Amino acid sequence: MTDSASLPDAPAMATLEAAMRAAGARIEALKAEGVAARDKADQSPVTAADEAAEQILEAAVRAIEPDALIIGEEAAAAGYLPPPSGRFWLIDPLDGTRDFIAGRDGYTVNLGLVVAGVPVLGLVLHPPSGRLWIGATGRGARLEEGEGQARPIRTRPLPDRPALVVSHSHLDDRTRAWADAVANATRTSAGSSIKFCLLAESKADAYPRFGPTMEWDTAAADAVLRAAGGITLDEAGEPFRYGKPGYRNGPFLGLGQPAAARHLPPFGNGNLGTADG
After folding, report:
1. pLDDT score recorded for residue 164
2. Taking the CB of residue 71, how many other CB atoms lie within 10 A of it?
Protein backbone atom coordinates (compact mmCIF):
# COMPACT_ATOMS: atom_id res chain seq x y z
CA MET A 1 0.00 0.00 0.00
CA THR A 2 1.36 3.39 -0.95
CA ASP A 3 1.63 6.02 1.75
CA SER A 4 -0.31 9.12 0.72
CA ALA A 5 2.72 11.16 1.76
CA SER A 6 4.47 9.85 -1.35
CA LEU A 7 1.92 11.63 -3.55
CA PRO A 8 2.13 15.30 -4.56
CA ASP A 9 0.23 17.74 -2.36
CA ALA A 10 -2.52 20.04 -3.66
CA PRO A 11 -0.25 22.86 -4.88
CA ALA A 12 2.01 20.37 -6.63
CA MET A 13 -1.01 18.72 -8.27
CA ALA A 14 -2.15 22.12 -9.50
CA THR A 15 1.28 22.60 -11.10
CA LEU A 16 1.05 19.23 -12.83
CA GLU A 17 -2.50 19.77 -14.05
CA ALA A 18 -1.58 23.18 -15.47
CA ALA A 19 1.41 21.61 -17.24
CA MET A 20 -0.79 18.90 -18.76
CA ARG A 21 -3.10 21.52 -20.20
CA ALA A 22 -0.16 23.62 -21.40
CA ALA A 23 1.30 20.56 -23.14
CA GLY A 24 -2.05 19.84 -24.77
CA ALA A 25 -2.42 23.43 -25.93
CA ARG A 26 1.07 23.34 -27.44
CA ILE A 27 0.29 20.11 -29.26
CA GLU A 28 -2.88 21.56 -30.74
CA ALA A 29 -1.10 24.77 -31.76
CA LEU A 30 1.62 22.82 -33.55
CA LYS A 31 -1.01 20.65 -35.24
CA ALA A 32 -2.67 23.80 -36.60
CA GLU A 33 0.67 24.87 -38.07
CA GLY A 34 1.05 21.57 -39.92
CA VAL A 35 2.51 18.27 -38.73
CA ALA A 36 5.98 17.29 -39.90
CA ALA A 37 7.22 13.89 -38.73
CA ARG A 38 10.51 12.06 -38.84
CA ASP A 39 11.50 8.54 -37.84
CA LYS A 40 13.37 7.70 -34.66
CA ALA A 41 15.98 4.95 -34.49
CA ASP A 42 13.27 2.35 -33.83
CA GLN A 43 11.39 3.55 -36.92
CA SER A 44 8.54 5.00 -34.85
CA PRO A 45 7.52 8.54 -35.76
CA VAL A 46 8.20 11.67 -33.74
CA THR A 47 7.11 15.29 -34.21
CA ALA A 48 7.93 18.67 -32.72
CA ALA A 49 4.75 18.30 -30.67
CA ASP A 50 6.10 15.19 -28.90
CA GLU A 51 9.28 17.01 -27.96
CA ALA A 52 7.63 20.26 -26.89
CA ALA A 53 5.10 18.48 -24.67
CA GLU A 54 7.78 16.40 -23.00
CA GLN A 55 9.79 19.52 -22.17
CA ILE A 56 6.75 21.16 -20.56
CA LEU A 57 5.96 18.11 -18.44
CA GLU A 58 9.53 17.47 -17.37
CA ALA A 59 9.89 21.09 -16.26
CA ALA A 60 6.71 20.78 -14.17
CA VAL A 61 7.92 17.64 -12.43
CA ARG A 62 11.29 19.29 -11.73
CA ALA A 63 9.46 22.28 -10.24
CA ILE A 64 7.82 20.10 -7.59
CA GLU A 65 10.52 17.42 -7.25
CA PRO A 66 13.94 18.72 -8.38
CA ASP A 67 15.77 15.42 -7.95
CA ALA A 68 13.10 13.24 -9.56
CA LEU A 69 14.04 10.36 -11.81
CA ILE A 70 12.09 11.09 -14.99
CA ILE A 71 11.84 8.69 -17.90
CA GLY A 72 10.39 10.40 -20.95
CA GLU A 73 9.74 8.65 -24.24
CA GLU A 74 11.68 11.14 -26.33
CA ALA A 75 14.60 11.35 -23.89
CA ALA A 76 14.74 7.55 -23.89
CA ALA A 77 14.77 7.53 -27.69
CA ALA A 78 17.76 9.88 -27.53
CA GLY A 79 19.62 7.43 -25.30
CA TYR A 80 18.68 8.53 -21.76
CA LEU A 81 17.43 5.35 -20.14
CA PRO A 82 18.72 5.07 -16.56
CA PRO A 83 17.71 2.07 -14.46
CA PRO A 84 14.50 2.42 -12.45
CA SER A 85 14.51 3.34 -8.79
CA GLY A 86 11.93 2.94 -6.04
CA ARG A 87 10.26 6.15 -7.21
CA PHE A 88 10.22 7.48 -10.76
CA TRP A 89 8.07 9.42 -13.20
CA LEU A 90 7.07 8.30 -16.70
CA ILE A 91 6.15 10.71 -19.49
CA ASP A 92 4.56 9.85 -22.81
CA PRO A 93 4.08 13.32 -24.23
CA LEU A 94 2.03 12.22 -27.23
CA ASP A 95 0.69 8.68 -27.09
CA GLY A 96 -0.80 7.91 -30.46
CA THR A 97 1.64 9.89 -32.61
CA ARG A 98 0.52 8.00 -35.72
CA ASP A 99 -3.08 9.10 -35.13
CA PHE A 100 -1.86 12.65 -34.58
CA ILE A 101 0.08 12.62 -37.85
CA ALA A 102 -2.86 11.12 -39.73
CA GLY A 103 -5.23 13.83 -38.48
CA ARG A 104 -7.21 11.51 -36.21
CA ASP A 105 -8.00 12.48 -32.63
CA GLY A 106 -7.00 9.29 -30.77
CA TYR A 107 -3.95 10.69 -28.99
CA THR A 108 -3.21 11.62 -25.39
CA VAL A 109 -0.67 13.24 -23.10
CA ASN A 110 0.45 11.04 -20.20
CA LEU A 111 2.25 11.64 -16.91
CA GLY A 112 2.56 8.90 -14.29
CA LEU A 113 4.31 8.35 -10.97
CA VAL A 114 5.52 4.87 -9.97
CA VAL A 115 6.41 3.99 -6.37
CA ALA A 116 7.75 0.54 -5.46
CA GLY A 117 6.69 -0.83 -8.84
CA VAL A 118 3.09 0.43 -8.58
CA PRO A 119 1.56 3.27 -10.65
CA VAL A 120 0.19 5.49 -7.89
CA LEU A 121 -0.60 8.71 -9.78
CA GLY A 122 -1.70 9.29 -13.33
CA LEU A 123 -2.77 12.25 -15.44
CA VAL A 124 -4.07 11.63 -18.97
CA LEU A 125 -5.17 14.46 -21.26
CA HIS A 126 -7.04 14.20 -24.56
CA PRO A 127 -5.97 17.46 -26.22
CA PRO A 128 -8.71 17.66 -28.91
CA SER A 129 -11.52 17.58 -26.32
CA GLY A 130 -9.74 18.96 -23.26
CA ARG A 131 -10.77 15.96 -21.16
CA LEU A 132 -8.33 15.29 -18.32
CA TRP A 133 -8.42 12.06 -16.31
CA ILE A 134 -6.66 12.05 -12.93
CA GLY A 135 -6.25 9.15 -10.54
CA ALA A 136 -4.22 8.61 -7.38
CA THR A 137 -3.93 5.77 -4.92
CA GLY A 138 -6.23 6.42 -1.98
CA ARG A 139 -7.69 9.54 -3.58
CA GLY A 140 -9.90 8.02 -6.26
CA ALA A 141 -10.22 9.06 -9.88
CA ARG A 142 -11.94 11.94 -11.60
CA LEU A 143 -12.58 13.33 -15.05
CA GLU A 144 -12.34 17.04 -15.82
CA GLU A 145 -14.48 17.74 -18.87
CA GLY A 146 -13.16 21.29 -18.81
CA GLU A 147 -11.15 23.36 -16.41
CA GLY A 148 -13.01 23.53 -13.11
CA GLN A 149 -15.63 20.97 -14.19
CA ALA A 150 -14.72 17.67 -12.53
CA ARG A 151 -16.68 14.58 -11.61
CA PRO A 152 -15.61 11.36 -9.89
CA ILE A 153 -15.40 8.20 -11.99
CA ARG A 154 -15.59 4.53 -11.00
CA THR A 155 -15.42 1.22 -12.79
CA ARG A 156 -18.41 -1.12 -13.02
CA PRO A 157 -19.00 -4.82 -12.30
CA LEU A 158 -18.67 -7.13 -15.30
CA PRO A 159 -22.03 -7.11 -17.16
CA ASP A 160 -23.62 -10.04 -18.99
CA ARG A 161 -22.36 -8.53 -22.25
CA PRO A 162 -18.80 -7.44 -21.52
CA ALA A 163 -17.48 -4.49 -23.50
CA LEU A 164 -13.94 -5.08 -24.71
CA VAL A 165 -11.66 -2.35 -25.96
CA VAL A 166 -8.65 -3.16 -28.14
CA SER A 167 -5.99 -1.30 -30.05
CA HIS A 168 -7.10 -0.20 -33.50
CA SER A 169 -3.54 -0.15 -34.85
CA HIS A 170 -1.86 -2.99 -32.92
CA LEU A 171 -4.47 -5.76 -32.83
CA ASP A 172 -2.34 -8.91 -33.00
CA ASP A 173 -3.55 -12.49 -33.41
CA ARG A 174 -3.24 -13.41 -29.71
CA THR A 175 -5.29 -10.43 -28.59
CA ARG A 176 -7.90 -11.14 -31.26
CA ALA A 177 -8.12 -14.80 -30.21
CA TRP A 178 -8.61 -13.91 -26.55
CA ALA A 179 -11.29 -11.36 -27.38
CA ASP A 180 -13.05 -13.87 -29.63
CA ALA A 181 -13.24 -16.28 -26.68
CA VAL A 182 -15.20 -13.88 -24.46
CA ALA A 183 -18.83 -14.93 -24.64
CA ASN A 184 -21.45 -12.33 -25.60
CA ALA A 185 -18.86 -9.56 -25.76
CA THR A 186 -18.91 -6.38 -27.78
CA ARG A 187 -15.66 -4.99 -29.09
CA THR A 188 -14.49 -1.43 -29.75
CA SER A 189 -11.19 -0.29 -31.20
CA ALA A 190 -9.48 2.79 -29.80
CA GLY A 191 -6.11 4.46 -29.86
CA SER A 192 -3.60 5.42 -27.19
CA SER A 193 -4.11 5.22 -23.43
CA ILE A 194 -7.78 6.20 -23.78
CA LYS A 195 -8.56 2.48 -23.57
CA PHE A 196 -7.67 2.39 -19.86
CA CYS A 197 -9.74 5.52 -19.30
CA LEU A 198 -12.79 3.90 -20.88
CA LEU A 199 -12.52 1.16 -18.26
CA ALA A 200 -12.15 3.75 -15.50
CA GLU A 201 -15.31 5.54 -16.71
CA SER A 202 -17.42 2.34 -16.79
CA LYS A 203 -17.62 2.55 -20.58
CA ALA A 204 -15.73 -0.73 -21.08
CA ASP A 205 -14.83 -3.78 -19.00
CA ALA A 206 -11.60 -5.34 -20.30
CA TYR A 207 -8.57 -4.26 -22.30
CA PRO A 208 -6.41 -7.20 -23.45
CA ARG A 209 -2.97 -6.46 -24.89
CA PHE A 210 -0.36 -8.96 -26.05
CA GLY A 211 1.45 -6.64 -28.46
CA PRO A 212 4.54 -4.72 -27.27
CA THR A 213 4.29 -1.49 -25.30
CA MET A 214 6.58 0.54 -23.09
CA GLU A 215 5.92 1.55 -19.50
CA TRP A 216 5.44 5.21 -20.42
CA ASP A 217 2.62 4.10 -22.73
CA THR A 218 0.60 2.64 -19.86
CA ALA A 219 1.61 3.88 -16.39
CA ALA A 220 -0.46 7.08 -16.20
CA ALA A 221 -3.70 5.58 -17.48
CA ASP A 222 -3.12 2.38 -15.49
CA ALA A 223 -2.91 4.55 -12.35
CA VAL A 224 -6.23 6.17 -13.29
CA LEU A 225 -7.82 2.74 -13.80
CA ARG A 226 -6.59 1.44 -10.44
CA ALA A 227 -7.71 4.57 -8.62
CA ALA A 228 -11.16 4.11 -10.17
CA GLY A 229 -11.44 0.56 -8.81
CA GLY A 230 -9.89 -1.48 -11.60
CA ILE A 231 -6.67 -3.45 -12.00
CA THR A 232 -4.15 -4.40 -14.66
CA LEU A 233 -2.83 -7.97 -14.52
CA ASP A 234 0.16 -9.71 -16.07
CA GLU A 235 0.19 -13.15 -17.70
CA ALA A 236 0.52 -14.84 -14.32
CA GLY A 237 -2.58 -13.09 -13.01
CA GLU A 238 -0.60 -10.78 -10.73
CA PRO A 239 -0.90 -6.99 -10.59
CA PHE A 240 1.12 -5.52 -13.45
CA ARG A 241 4.33 -3.98 -12.17
CA TYR A 242 6.62 -1.21 -13.36
CA GLY A 243 10.38 -0.75 -13.33
CA LYS A 244 11.03 -3.72 -15.61
CA PRO A 245 14.28 -4.07 -17.59
CA GLY A 246 14.40 -1.42 -20.30
CA TYR A 247 10.95 -0.25 -19.18
CA ARG A 248 9.43 -2.79 -21.56
CA ASN A 249 5.96 -4.17 -20.92
CA GLY A 250 4.88 -7.73 -21.44
CA PRO A 251 1.28 -8.77 -22.13
CA PHE A 252 -1.36 -7.36 -19.82
CA LEU A 253 -5.08 -7.41 -19.17
CA GLY A 254 -6.77 -4.26 -17.89
CA LEU A 255 -10.02 -4.93 -16.01
CA GLY A 256 -12.70 -2.61 -14.74
CA GLN A 257 -13.20 -4.90 -11.74
CA PRO A 258 -10.58 -7.31 -10.35
CA ALA A 259 -13.29 -9.94 -9.77
CA ALA A 260 -14.02 -9.99 -13.51
CA ALA A 261 -10.95 -12.20 -14.03
CA ARG A 262 -12.88 -15.17 -12.64
CA HIS A 263 -15.43 -14.95 -15.45
CA LEU A 264 -13.13 -14.42 -18.43
CA PRO A 265 -11.01 -16.81 -20.51
CA PRO A 266 -7.49 -17.65 -19.31
CA PHE A 267 -5.03 -14.95 -20.33
CA GLY A 268 -1.46 -15.67 -21.42
CA ASN A 269 0.47 -18.19 -19.34
CA GLY A 270 -1.64 -17.67 -16.26
CA ASN A 271 -5.07 -18.96 -15.36
CA LEU A 272 -6.90 -15.71 -14.77
CA GLY A 273 -10.38 -17.04 -15.15
CA THR A 274 -12.65 -19.98 -15.62
CA ALA A 275 -14.76 -18.48 -18.42
CA ASP A 276 -17.79 -19.62 -16.49
CA GLY A 277 -19.79 -16.51 -17.32
Report:
1. 98
2. 25
